[in-house]
UniProtKB/TrEMBL annotation, chain A:
InterPro entries: Thioredoxin-like_sf. CDD domains: TRX_family (cd02947). It comes from the Bacteria. Gene3D superfamilies: Glutaredoxin. It comes from Microbacter margulisiae. SUPFAM superfamilies: Thioredoxin-like (SSF52833). This is Thioredoxin 1.
From TrEMBL, chain B:
InterPro entries: FAD/NAD-bd_sf, FAD/NAD-binding_dom, Ferredoxin-NADP_redctase_2, Pyr_nucl-diS_OxRdtase_2_AS. This is Thioredoxin reductase (NADPH). PANTHER family: THIOREDOXIN REDUCTASE 1-RELATED-RELATED. The keyword Disulfide bond applies. Keywords: Disulfide bond, FAD, Flavoprotein, Oxidoreductase, Redox-active center. The keyword Coiled coil does not apply. PROSITE patterns: PYRIDINE_REDOX_2 (PS00573). GO terms for molecular function: thioredoxin-disulfide reductase (NADPH) activity. It holds the Pfam family Pyr_redox_2. Coiled coil: none annotated.
Length: 121, 314
């Protein structure tokens, strides 16, 4: 299990349930390493703002994470974390390696819509 | 218009330098805010094992960052992570910092400690293949390259040490380096040179990355002859040093030719009330201990500045 404050997914069945029970899901699949920790941190930070999205992590080396490692969308990925965005149970976007908050929120806004209470300047 | 939240001191950057400044300032009852663009801890969290932090035999960088964060918080320091600074006004007596979400903060003293980030080659294809064959972290991504042929770019300690560590996975490692000699410790050079899986292409650099879905080849530019040779590879690890995160400070505080903040021995910048600490300043040695030391000096100098300012205002 990863040491984050995100909800953890530990089995393929849990992942299946998470994406079938929720319309918008982001799963960060990584390790407790340099490229992954910043992405967990971003997800933790925006969780309260993006209430219409469910954020999860999954340990990359967990054998059950094969369901993520074998997705066609991650073919060619050679950098962790693999971050997968699911809408209505389908993968709509996947990214490899470290991302900035701006990169993550751009994807969330595009795929799932910006949060209703989002402040504009 | 959003309300401006007032502090005595604002620290920009929450790596070891910024967190230490936060600990010292808050402990001295200076109302302090740390603003950090990424995850709190800075480059420390990129470090799997810190073995040269005195008093702690060995610690994971993530754990050390968490302890520093907890210490700062326990003394009352406010911490905001994953923020984006939209504008800074540092020239006046009261300095103001506005975030991209519209929140504004002001304080008479600011400590700049935005640290650094890995230098990129900045050549075509680098963005496209990041995470798809290009990596900046051997410990994170090394196992993706098991039994593959890879290239390591760089000639300093981290390039040579990481090249050796990558031989655990890769079948062949080619080090591409721009000079005819390395800028690393002798033991690191020796170890890389004697390793049977490592070969060298000197006085050269990568000028482009190619591939369809993932990285397939690179162009190697010979810096002496300007000849470009295509080179098949499954992956490239780039370790060519760090750059200071000072782009948004250009024209605001004095920087040197490398974009590092120029400070005096009290870590004062050219602007009254603005101090700087850590990897962002012009200096020779970049370590957690040096960042922590400078965070301390900057915090004490800022406290002293606030004290003098208060006296002159009363
Ligand atoms: C892989 C690796 C291994 C290392 N190993 C060791 C080791 O074993 N021992 C050792 O002593 N040192 C080691 N170092 C070096 C050490 O980590 C750095 O010298 C130290 O972290 C520098 O501290 P800092 O606070 O100045 O900056 P940083 O650690 O870079 O922190 C700066 C922080 O500021 C944030 N920031 C940047 N721009 C802005 C902005 N505009 N606004 C707000 N925030 C901003 C960044 O996101 C970051 O969180 C290592 C570094 C790396 C990368």
């Amino acid at each position: 299990m990863l040491y984050t404050n995100l909800k953890h997914i530990e089995t393929a069945a849990q992942l299946e349930k998470a994406i079938s029970d929720n319309e918008n899901v982001m799963v960060v699949c990584g390790r407790m390493g340099p490229m992954c920790i910043p992405v967990y941190g971003i997800a933790e930070d925006i969780e309260d703002e993006y209430k219409h999205v469910q954020f999860f992590d999954m340990e990359f080396d967990n054998p059950e994470a094969v369901v993520i490692r074998r997705l066609p969308e991650v073919r060619g990925f050679m950098g962790i974390p693999f971050t997968i965005y699911y809408k209505n149970g389908k993968v709509v976007k996947a990214t490899s390696s470290i991302q900035t908050k701006e990169q993550v929120t751009t994807i969330l806004n595009k795929e799932f819509g910006a949060p209703a209470n989002k402040k504009t300047l | 218009m959003n309300e401006v939240q007032q502090y005595d001191a604002i620290v920009v950057g929450g790596g070891p330098a910024g967190l230490t400044a936060g600990i010292y300032l808050s402990r001295a009852r200076v109302k302090t805010l740390i603003l950090n663009e990424g995850t709190l801890g800075g480059q420390m969290i990129l470090t799997h094992e810190i073995a040269n932090y005195p008093g702690v035999e060995s610690i994971n960088g993530f754990q050390l960052a968490n302890i520093m964060k907890k210490q700062a918080k326990s003394f009352g320091c406010d911490l905001l992570a994953n923020i984006n600074i939209a504008s800074m006004s540092l020239g006046d007596d009261i300095k103001t910092i506005t975030l991209s979400d519209g929140k504004s903060f002001s304080a008479p003293a600011v400590i700049l400690s935005p640290g650094g980030r890995p230098r990129t080659l900045g050549v075509p294809g680098e963005g496209k293949f990041k995470g798809r064959g290009i990596s900046y972290c051997a410990t994170c991504d090394g196992d993706f390259f098991t039994d593959k042929e890879i290239v390591v770019v760089g000639g300093g300690n981290s390039a040579l040490e990481e090249a050796v560590s990558l031989t655990k996975y890769a079948s062949k490692v080619t080090i591409v380096h721009q000079f005819d000699h390395f800028q690393a410790f002798e033991h690191a050079i020796e170890e890389a040179k004697k390793h049977p899986k490592i070969s060298f292409i000197m006085e050269s650099t990568i000028s482009a990355f190619h591939g369809e879905n993932g990285l397939e080849s690179v162009d190697i530019l010979n810096l002496k002859t300007n000849a470009v040779t295509p080179f098949k590879t499954d992956g490239v690890f780039i370790f060519i040093g760090y750059v200071a995160n000072t782009e948004n400070l250009k024209g605001m505080v004095a920087l040197n030719d490398w974009g590092e903040i120029v400070v005096n021995s009290d870590l004062e910048t050219n602007l009254p009330g603005v101090f700087a600490a850590g990897d962002c300043i012009a200096k020779r040695y970049r370590q957690v201990t040096t960042a922590v030391g400078e965070g301390t000096v900057a915090a004490l100098a800022a406290s002293n500045y606030l004290h003098r300012r208060k006296q002159s205002h009363s």
